[in-house]
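hey so u asked for the seq, here:
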Amino acid sequence: MPATGVKSFQTKNVEAVNRGRQVTRSRHLEIVAFYGLLATILLFAIPYGTVEVWHKSLLVLIIAILGGFRVTDCILRGSFRIGEAITLLPLVGILGLATAQIVRWPGYASSISLDPYETKVFILIFGGLIVVGEILYFYTNSMGRLKWLVCLVIVVGVVSAIFGLLRRLFLDHQFELLSGYLQPEQGFAQFINRNHFAMLIEMSLGLLLGMLIKGEFSEKVRFVGWIFSGITMYSIIASSSRGGLISLAALSVFAMFVHIITRNNSSLRQRERRGRIDASTRMTLQKVSVALGLCGLLLGLIVVTIAFVGGDAVVTRIEKLGGEVETIDNTRVNRKLIWNSTLDLIKDKPILGNGFGGYAAAIPAFDKSGGKFVLKQAHNDYLEILANGGIVGFGFFAAFGVIASLRILKNLKSKDSFRRSCCFGAAIGIFGVLIHSFVDFGLHIMINALVFVVLIVIGTANIGEPSET
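ran it, structure tokens below
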């Protein structure tokens, strides 16, 4: 072989070896970023749902490090493709708006945000959540990875539910120090607030219900799944969270209604092929009627079950529900008073809002309680988004919701039964959170926000044919 040929062969061989090393390093970075992120979410579910400042700071730091692995992987791959860029684009718009809110524009005495520091904190945390979503989108490229996400949501929810029930039965009665620190009158499981616990469990329960209803599993798996569903459902009732109970009823009815409407019907498909539109319409109306009737029965059964299982404590809290939306004087704060104050705040700056994270600084000027109470949240995330980000900010979130909904509808038509079932479960869990967010602020808690991101990825990720990792 000529000398030039030998050199050419050696050069190609070296290049092949280098490419192999790059692929190996890229694979290692991928494993660290993906599974490291899952482990991080699992661990940060433990400390009260991650509410302390140092908890949040450490979490954002870890996410930034994992994001660094993701960037390094991009460099090794020689590709800077963003996972689901179109889906994440409206959320990047939120970051852009928040950044604009802390800038002191020419001709203005101050920035748009009334609390620039909290807006900067929002940028860091929300930016971290976007990084989490991008990492999960990019690396959830097989059914095997999707199963890991599903297991994560279920494990976090079921373990939290079991701990909450054990704490209620044993710990709060036997360890006074622990009881005092975790506030048994207000908290549940590892959470300081029972409503935040309920929102986490709604996501796990919704995913379980959807998979059990639509999925094709063995009898043993289904039996264990229904046991887990029962545990999570009972834990919501035991927590006495009124928002959780409302969401529990809503997501259960939603699950049944959508399942009946989307259930395969061979007779309907045959009529559609024959062009019998009238028969098809009648069948659709029949499905809707049956779904509404069964949903009504299910709702009644849920109400009776909640009252029976929850006992006097739950019934008493439900009876007080009317007081939260009734007009009262300013001697006692309730949700209607907070919402009315928030509406006045929204009217003051309807376009760009008062700055993300700036609600607590802005609301005192509109507080109808006369300053007797310190308001930090609107107890309605939709109103708070309007108050903080205005119509522009709400529009970005709405755009993200539309894109995510279209992706979920697409995945519900997947040929793979597991993909369809976990997508359906994710939709149920997301629906429960959307209902609960009308009366609470559970997504402000980091672990809830993280699990919600995972749930969205489960429902919207674009995955090809099933394969092993």
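The first helix runs from residue 3 to 43. DSSP finds 16 helices and no strands in the chain.
lmk if thats what u needed
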